[in-house]
Protein 1
Amino acid sequence: MQVAGDLCAQLDVAALRQGTDDAWPNGATFANHARLAIVDDAAFYLGSQNWYPANLVELGFIVDDAAVTQQLRDGYFTQAWTSSARAMASCQ
């Protein structure tokens, strides 16, 4: 199906990783409830809203500002993605 192929070419999903380790020094695994979606390098959503029906009170922000989106990419996302991409979910 072409739509699925197009989506796979544009969407990457991975659990957040920190560096090369998957746990804190005491062995506890990382817990992170944040969701981040960057759209066209011009806007992003950052929050805790589950992306499925859960009937929970959640908080999130949509920022529609290309300069601020670039700051997020440079200061946070690029490093986080470099660490996380090794566990990226396959779209195939």
Protein 2
Amino acid sequence: SPLKILVLNGFPTFESKYLKNYLAESGHQVVVKNQLTTARYKYEYFNMASQPIIDITPEKLGFFDLLIIDTKSLQGLSNRQLNTLKSAVGDLGLGVLIQADANYFSGNQFLSSFKFDREKNKETVLTDYPKQNIKKYLYQFRNDFSIQSIHNSDSKIWSAYERLGSGRVGTTVFQNTFELILDGHIQAYQAFWSKMIEQISKRTTPIIQWSANSKIAFKDQAFEFEVRTNVPKPIIESSEGYSISLQRDVHVKSLWKGRVYPRDIGWQQHYLKQDSTTVFPYYVTDTSQWKSITNFNTVKSNQIHFNNTSKSEDTPRKTLKPVNPLWFFIIFILCSGYLWLEPKL
């Protein structure tokens, strides 16, 4: 799908030149901001009308699905701009693709927490295109649990991203990928960048998503559900005619949790007051019904409880014992004796 992409470069490069051309030819709306001198910039617009000055503000970043930024521009951001960018990624779901240089892998990364290991080869191949060598820096990603691989080969990760709230931040150790085009490997070049952009760019989510452990509730018993929406202050109402209090998740601001105690038996519905087109149906029954489900959930809960209990019992417990005060008295006597004896010697 066509994306809105902002490209920030400290200076024009061949890598950015070929990349912006590919993005424009693919139908994406692209804004390129190149720094010419201190406080002087050149703007380019593709598949869209020109706009006022593009800056790192919540209003401007909220318009875009992906930010492509090089190391120089990233390191040149002020603390205010960097915090604004982190908020746009975490809260608005903005994707950030960092164009790394040789200094990026050993310096402060500011926005990400990638870790890299030295690697002796200057070129490598991809699993999807084993016949094309691609130039790279002398690094590879350290395979931590927090990163998701995009490109890899021989159990080594060359491109990856990590999640930051609702958005994603990614980069690659490859360099000068435009040489694939010069060598006639246009398909490999397009496939490489298409996968990078698809994995990192902003996720398209519906207005609201509902989820619950079960769509069967019991009368006068707690029924918990979750709502995922980009509506700033969602108001959830029940078909029984009352509003439902929601609790916002601490880490994911688009995730809300609710709990109700149904009073009537039969089909019930929850809906978003700001957009009542999507509803969440569930069935309320009496506790005497669906005993098989109740028994199954009870057995499952007991298994989880006793498995955790047995594991904790197998682990040897360490008991802390207080230090005997006599040791402190002995140390005090020795120190006092030394202070009394030392002047006499």
Protein 3
Amino acid sequence: FQLAGDVERLVLTCAALAVDATDLELPVPLDRAAYARALQRLTLRGLVEDGRLTAYGRSVEALPVERAWAELLVHASAEQLALVAGASGIDSLHRMTKEERDLHGVLVPGSDHLTAYNLLAEAINSFGKVGEVHGLRRHIFDEALLSEWADRRGVLVKAIEDGALGMAAAYRALDEVLPDVVPYANRERRADFVDLVARIEPFDLVLDERTVDGQDVRIAKTSVAGNGGSVAGTLRYFADRTGTARASIEGTALPHELIRKYAASGPPSVVLVRHKHRQELAVSRTLRYFGFTLESGIERLRGEFPPALVAAARLTLANALLAGDVDHPARGRLSRAIASLDEYWRRSGGALVGTDQETLRSLLLAQLGDVDSWESFQQTAVDLDADALIAHDARAHLDALPGSLHLRGDAAPLEYQIRNGQAIARVYLREGQARRIRNSDLPTLDRPLTFAVRRRGEVMEAETLEALALLLEQHGGSRNPRNEDSHARPQHGGRGGRDRGRSPRGRRRR
């Protein structure tokens, strides 16, 4: 049941059992990508650590509601408990109400959660009483009166029943006494609820109609959360009239001042910037709210680096040297050495010790051990010697590997790569070669071959010649005769052609 249901509940259950679902042989296919994302999200929220539930995670996992509402219940005060417990059992205001609905007297502007709760509270206080059903203390209703009220309000009776059941289950799980009468979400209670949501923020979050990963989201048409700003709630996906996937949200609007109140300053990071045609280091500071960057600032580092930023500054410089992105007197020589070492490493299939990126970064950091300012960095000699890093015999063996293949009298460039830990060699062919070459024409190398063709700036690649030919056929042949190996017919000025007697630019010769 859990494998086919909510992935977050599955992660919590596995963490409670100290197992990893990706290591198990399961009867139901597991969406491993979704599982990994959920595990990362719950780890960041402090519910899971090293694959096991934290104390906070155990409190949340024990509650019989969705994870987001369970987090709010754990943090809710006694005054907030009824609102959170009642809203936790309601799927959504949209699914709770019909198209023609009457929200007069229960509408809480800016919050679908509290509007739905007020409908539940009105039903409980008007037609419900506390009873016991199958051992559970819960509110039970006069069915006739509830049905009449639901028709008038445009509310689904099942949604009220589900909300009352969820509320009772939450109270029992928290070992609290279910009240006979529940409070309405008035202005003061609304402010407390919104503050709780903004402080914990366990829901999906949309700021200015965009998610943290840049997805466009619109406020649901039936929502009362407003038309913009920030909304914490549940994302729902649908297809529009053209079949395009869209997303909408309903939930509770969060005021900007509360978002800034609970936003956290990220740790300062050292970055490389360019100012007036010269490079320098700067400190980047950000203000973030649950993944969103509210603001960021750059402050240039002048003079000696602050002691707390020395290590970060040296690491930034080492990474920039490794990428060839920083101005330095040794930049050209260093870039050539790094490119040569990278080529040797790829030719060795990753087996060559001392030429991988981590080792080169460590070597550069060691040479920057005394750098404490931009000026001292410019005066520090930095070098990577391929001759010193690679033994002569190993270098001679790698140099002897072919840089191209001779196929039917033509040369085809060869590029060495490492994919998923496996050494391969990519052969670049022209389209005519790709159609003409056969497997019998290929030499035997110490690693598998893949085949590629460049077409209009795009590289088309396949693991076999047959697959490459099929790929080229599917994407259509080249319209440029220069891309083919065969001799093309002249398009103009040929025998009997219409352009005979004209110059190459189309003008008649004189």
